[in-house]
Specification:
The chain is α/β, with parallel strands linked by helices and 222 residues long. The chain has helices spanning 16-23, 41-47, 59-69, 88-96, 115-131, 144-149, 160-171, 186-191, 193-209, 213-219, and strands spanning 3-9, 28-34, 51-54, 74-77, 82-84, 101-110, 141-143, 173-183. The chain is 45% helix and 22% strand. It has an eight-stranded mixed sheet, sandwiched between helices. The longest helix is centred in the middle third of the chain and has 17 residues, at 115-131. The relative contact order is 0.15.
Length: 222
């Protein structure tokens, strides 16, 4: 099973090298899909060994392009501010060695270890325990055959990660790995912890109820 890692970027010069270095390895294809960075993201990504594609801005659109241009039998979508444990390949391949498994995600952990981060980690653990709904910052991976059956990553204004999770569940079992995806808590610092958590809950409810995502994205400033 070959693996392609797709990383969407927009002005991620301070983080992209770490993300690439956490996954690049012999036999692993790393594709960075940039949405118009004005910093050194693209150059740094190439220097780190990734293939760089340029897309119009929009995370879902960037992920869609990366998935279509990749060649692996497994596609893993990684955020630019997230890195994986060194054993990540073994974990993914072990999960998908079971034909009933269609895809999965990693355990969630913040790079920063303050009280705020630990409380949010616990809320994520509850969401996973009750609903088995990982978000994109947990490095979602999927069989290419499943992604193709879905028609690729859905082009939507937001919550494309949950659309992918739903597609995985419809095709088979979703495996939650014990290995961690370690991500930055920057968006909670930038927008405020309480506001960000509430926005996530509203977005999740809206996704579940089928609300207009373009309207939700506009209200949330995305």
């Amino acid at each position: 099973m070959t693996i392609s890692v797709v990383i969407p970027t927009l002005d991620e010069a301070s983080r992209i090298v770490r993300a690439i270095e956490s996954v690049i390895a012999p036999g692993v294809e790393v594709i960075v899909v940039d949405g118009g960075s004005r910093d050194e993201t693209c150059r740094l990504a190439r220097d780190a060994g990734a293939r760089v594609l340029v897309s119009s801005r929009g995370r879902a659109r960037q992920l869609r392009m990366g998935g279509e241009e990749s060649s692996g039998s497994i596609v893993l979508f990684l955020h630019a501010d997230t890195d994986l444990e060194s054993e990540w390949q073994e974990g993914v391949r072990a999960a998908l060695s079971d034909p009933a498994c269609a895809g999965g995600a990693f355990a969630f952990r913040f790079a920063e270890r303050g009280v705020r981060e630990r409380l949010i980690e616990r809320s994520v653990a509850l969401r996973l325990a009750f609903f088995r709904l990982p978000y994109g910052d947990q490095a979602l991976f999927v069989r290419r055959s499943v992604l193709e059956q879905m028609g690729g990553m859905p082009i939507v204004p937001m919550m494309e990660d949950l659309d992918l999770v739903r597609g995985i569940k419809r095709a088979g079992r979703l495996q939650l790995l014990p290995l961690t995806a370690t991500t930055s808590s920057r968006r909670y610092a930038d927008r405020g912890s309480v506001r960000t958590v509430l926005e996530h809950q509203v977005a999740l409810l809206g996704w579940w109820l089928g609300w207009d995502r373009a309207a939700m994205a506009k209200r949330m400033g995305r």
